[in-house]
Design brief:
The radius of gyration is 15 Å and the shape is elongated. It has one domain (about 5-95). The protein has helices at about 5-30, 35-65, 75-95. By secondary structure, it is mainly alpha-helical. Helices cover about 90% and strands about 0% of the residues.
């Protein structure tokens, strides 16, 4: 597999999924009236399933990155760790502001 394609699939695609989840949550909490939110949060559960896959892929990627003792490219390791944290924080925010 091409190295740039591998980096995109393992690091940047989960980041794009997290940005989509953040955008959706901000849209729900700020722009949708409270009474319409209940039905719309069902869609968030589907998006959060995508977030679960992001956590799985990013967690495995971060573990492999550390286990392989890769030197350099620390920003990719940090990006993998951040991608594992964002969906969890979004779920907590959803529960807090719902």
């Amino acid at each position: 597999m091409n190295a740039s394609l591998k980096h995109f699939l393992l690091y940047y695609l989960p980041l794009l999924a997290n940005i989509a989840l953040i955008t959706y949550l901000v849209w729900q909490l700020n722009l949708v009236p409270y009474f319409q939110r209940q039905g719309e949060f069902q869609i968030f559960s589907v998006l959060y399933a995508v977030g679960g896959m992001v956590v799985a892929v990013s967690g495995v990627t971060a573990f492999i990155h550390v286990a392989a003792n890769q030197q350099g490219r620390r920003r990719l390791f940090v990006l993998a760790l951040v991608n594992t944290i964002i969906p969890t924080v979004l779920l907590l925010a959803m529960l807090q502001f719902r």
